[in-house]
Amino acid sequence: MAGGAAAVFTAVAAAPAGAAENGISFSRVTVNKGKAVVVGVANEVEVPASFRMTAERYWDSAHVYLYRGSTSSSNELWHSLLVSSDCDSGTRGACDFTETLTIDPAHGDFGNEYAGAWKVAGRAYLAGDAEDTDAQNLTVHVKRNSHLTVNASPEPVAKGRTITVTGKITRANWDTNKYAGYGGRHVNLQFKPAGATSFTTVKMVYADSAGGLRTTVKADRTGTWRWAYYGNSTTGVSYAPGDHVVVQ
Length: 248
Hints:
Layout: E1 6-10, E2 24-31, E3 37-39, E4 45-55, E5 59-67, E6 76-77, E7 80-85, E8 93-103, E9 116-126, E10 131-144, E11 146-153, E12 162-173, E13 178-181, E14 186-193, E15 200-206, E16 212-218, E17 223-229, E18 238-239, E19 243-245
Parallel strand pairs: 3-10
Antiparallel strand pairs: 1-7, 2-4, 4-8, 5-6, 5-9, 7-8, 9-10, 11-12, 12-13, 12-16, 14-15, 14-17, 17-18, 17-19
Keywords: Signal
Signal peptide: 1-19
Protein name: Calcium-binding protein
């Protein structure tokens, strides 16, 4: 890996040789700027990462990755890696790396069981075919994307009359590569008056078994209605685009 150039790795679950002590240490490790990684059903997700590796031995390449279990298992989550460094390979000392870790929901081995918490490790390939794998004190949550729709009617509406707000919450199913209704979720109905800059929660509604949402409110003033879902340990946050209703 030449300084400033990039090295590409492609794999699904490359099994490491173990966490041997080879004079390698990782520091300043960040993955996705500390945020959860949210994945849909079709598009690859590029996860930014960076780290510093300090080496007492000559090295060929290095990267960080997500794993479950132990660093000696093959339970890893990455489909390709693009890594660049400010150092030349075959050197020693401290080097800073930037990386793009790609997750592909369309990959045949990717399924719903991959949602949840993953740990982070750094791996270096050394001269002479040696390898060093070190666990980091970091956790990254990988989440299934969620979607919300909304419809508020009638439009326009007379002041004091009833508005019916409907919608649906769905989330990515990585086993089928489709979105499916996410039933039983606790979803907030929010309103932003005309001229305001932020939404306020009006009430909380539970989705039915198919993910359907329905409630009624009194027409008080003109503004925009939307549904908001704040996610959980396996599912991402989502907001409906909003439906503007004029109150006459």
